[in-house]
């Protein structure tokens, strides 16, 4: 299991915004929320885009998988807690038409904004 997470981390440690059309179904994009790292991908299903994120707390953390099927206009949020008194760090995944976007919220920098599918 650790090798799986290590492989995902090697795929890219920080998420980078993608431009429309650069990610096809089942292509993974690296994500990072604080010390949590992982991969986000989607598949096209009859009832929407099935978005899957697998993350772990560092290399030794057990992986956790999040899954949501997004229809037109829907969104899902993945968040991790921070120190007491600090806001959660979150990724919001939204679908608008054939475009899937990821926005980092709850942190000082909102630099992770980009389309990951079109």
Describe the structure in your own words:
By secondary structure, the chain is mainly beta. β3 and β4 form a beta hairpin. It is built from 1 helix and 8 strands; from the N terminus they run αββββββββ. The model is unreliable at about 5-25 and about 110-115 (pLDDT under 50). The strands form 2 sheets. Strands 1-2-3-4 form a 4-stranded antiparallel β-sheet, covered by helices on one side. Strands 5-6-7-8 form a 4-stranded antiparallel β-sheet, with no helix packed on it. Helices cover about 10% and strands about 50% of the residues.
Q: How would you summarize what this structure contains?
A:
Helices cover 8% and strands 49% of the residues.
List the helices and strands and how they pair.
Layout: H1 2-10, E1 29-33, E2 36-45, E3 48-57, E4 64-70, E5 75-80, E6 89-96, E7 99-105, E8 113-117
Antiparallel strand pairs: 1-2, 2-3, 3-4, 5-6, 6-7, 7-8
């Amino acid at each position: 299991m650790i090798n799986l997470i290590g492989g995902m981390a090697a795929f890219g440690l920080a998420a980078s915004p993608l431009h429309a059309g650069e990610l096809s179904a089942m292509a993974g994009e690296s994500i990072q929320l604080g010390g949590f790292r992982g991969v986000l991908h989607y598949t096209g299903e009859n009832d929407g885009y099935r978005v899957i994120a697998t993350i772990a707390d560092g290399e030794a953390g057990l992986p956790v998988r999040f899954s949501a099927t997004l229809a037109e206009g829907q969104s899902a949020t993945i968040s991790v807690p921070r120190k007491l008194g600090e806001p959660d760090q979150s990724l919001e995944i939204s679908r608008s038409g054939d475009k899937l976007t990821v926005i980092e919220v709850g942190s000082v920098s909102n630099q992770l904004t980009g389309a990951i599918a079109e």
